[in-house]
Amino acid sequence: xxxxxxxxxxxxxxxxxNVARSWRRGHLLxxxxxxxxxxxxxxxxxxxxxxxxxxxxxxxxxGALLGGRxxxxxxxxLSGQMHSQALxxxxxxxxxxxxGIDQGELTALLDELRGMTGSRITLIAADGTVLADSxxxxxxxxxxxxxxxxxxxxxxxxxWTERTSSTLGExxxxxxxATRGDTPMVLRVAVPLQDVNATVRTMQRWIWLAAGIAIVLxxxxxxxxxxxxxxxxxxxxxxxRAVAQGNLAARxxxxxxxxxxxxxxxxxxxxxxLASSRVALxxxxxxxxxxxxxxxxxxxxxxxxxxxxxxxxxxxxxxxxDEDAATGLPxxxxxxxxxxxxxxxxxxxxxxxxxxxxxxxxGLNRRTLLTTAHVIEDxxxxxxxVVLRDISELRRLETVRREFVSNVSHELRTPLTSIRALVETxxxxxIDDPDVANDFLGRIVGEVDRLTALVEDLLDLGRLxxxxxxxxxxxxxxxxxxxxxxxxxxxQTDRAQLKLTVSLADRLxxxxxxxxxxxxxxxxxxxxxxxxxxxxxxxNVKASRQxxxxxxxxxxxxxxxxxxxxxxxxERFYKSDKARRSEGTGLGLAIAKHIIQAHGGEISxxxxxxxxxxFWFTLPVRQAKGAVRRSAGPGE
Length: 636
Hints:
Blueprint lengths: L12 H24 L6 H56 L4 H15 L2 E6 L4 E4 L14 H9 L1 E7 L6 E8 L6 E8 H52 L13 H37 L3 E5 L5 E4 L1 H7 L3 H4 L4 H5 L2 H12 L5 E8 L4 E11 L4 E9 L1 H36 L6 H33 L2 E9 H10 L2 H6 L3 E6 L5 E4 L1 H17 L6 E9 L2 E8 L6 H4 L21 H11 L4 E5 L5 E8 L7 E5 L4
Parallel strand pairs: 12-14
Antiparallel strand pairs: 1-2, 1-5, 3-4, 4-5, 6-7, 6-10, 8-9, 9-10, 11-13, 11-18, 14-15, 15-17, 16-17
């Protein structure tokens, strides 16, 4: 296990206690803000609404009464005007009759008066006979002796009524007066009720419009009056709410009312003192929040029962939880890990100065979390603090380091052991035999060459991973690039009794690559195919364009590779089954992977045991004006 840093396991207790207390105070402050947001109905509405409702009801009742009376008032006024009009017309007709007017001239006179007054005019004899009418043929009209207005006029001098005309078939307002001549007659004027009703509706609309305007004005006046009364109180309430939400700069403006003014000044004094005492705490809390948010370690604060009070972003990411949603939930429900929960419960049951430390594998991916749990306690409450550090990558790197050292040691030990044995044999006397000495010296040179190749591969891989190997990029023809690399290994395929074919698509694109490095990849893949393909087999190198990439494939009919081995095939020093451990350092495919990634491409393998293998890599098709130097960065 790696040495525990002070940051994770040995963090000063006082520091974490300050962090926990700051979080707790922040939690209480947020609760105060939520309470302050519960606003009640305003005093303005309480005073305004009853006043407005009263005015509205009064105006609506008045509007309804006036609207209902509008027709009666209008009819009274209109009938009075028609009565005056009828008297004037009757006076003139009396005068004309006294001068000896005949029936035709009487009808013409009524038509003339009809045009001047706009009213229908009818002259009726005392027995009800219609003598003349401005709108109809008097000879065709029935006797009017039983008409109410005619009876009233003969008996009292005038009368009026509403009725549908049997002659014209529409409603009229009739006003009749008795003439003052020697011969008793009745003069009647009539106005269509349709015009009367239209005028009444217009009057009612104006009444309702006036009522609506009055209601609006009453609302405005009520709001202004009540606003002046409760304005200072409203301001005090708003500022109090602002303070509850954390705005300690809120102040109340002084007012002339003594009682409210004293209340406002007391409020300002209270807020000022509160702001002075909270500035340092808020600043400290903000710093702690910034520190905790930036920590790569997970930090969880719980209550004495193990319910989560706060957790930082790193902890939320470790557990796949939401920071806000996790608040208030049991620690076990948030972490979904019984071992972590047991560690916390053990710490909560222990004294404050005791800590619990363990490396726990968490989650389906079995990440290793170096976990510290202890208690923070004061007079108010008892809290649990859990600090988690993900050391999975450290363990993986440690494993990789051990494997690397083991592999390098193994690869160096074998040729060195052979060289030592050969040298000891020569020292024992074999050097005196020329044939044996030459054979042994040749073997020593071969082992030295093997060591040199191993060291060169290690240095090359190290430079590629560190990004210190420059790529001499140039735009080349893909056909020439592939063909040149394959031709270099044809003698080896012939000696291995293998058939080597090249399948190139028409019009392969030009690519911008480091030709020597790409040839190194191609040679490595073809060389592996040669080593692991039995005599009589075949190797086919294909190249084609796939979208914006050049795809190169090396297919063989060899022994194939299992699926579990394919995942590790491009790791350094990794070799497959025993048949693949006979030669090579195990670095070729790792170097090839970094070269292809440095060009912006991909490399992989498809295979089934006993059915051969297909190694493939891609290179992006690029257009460039000339050669460019580029470093091969790690992970490219």
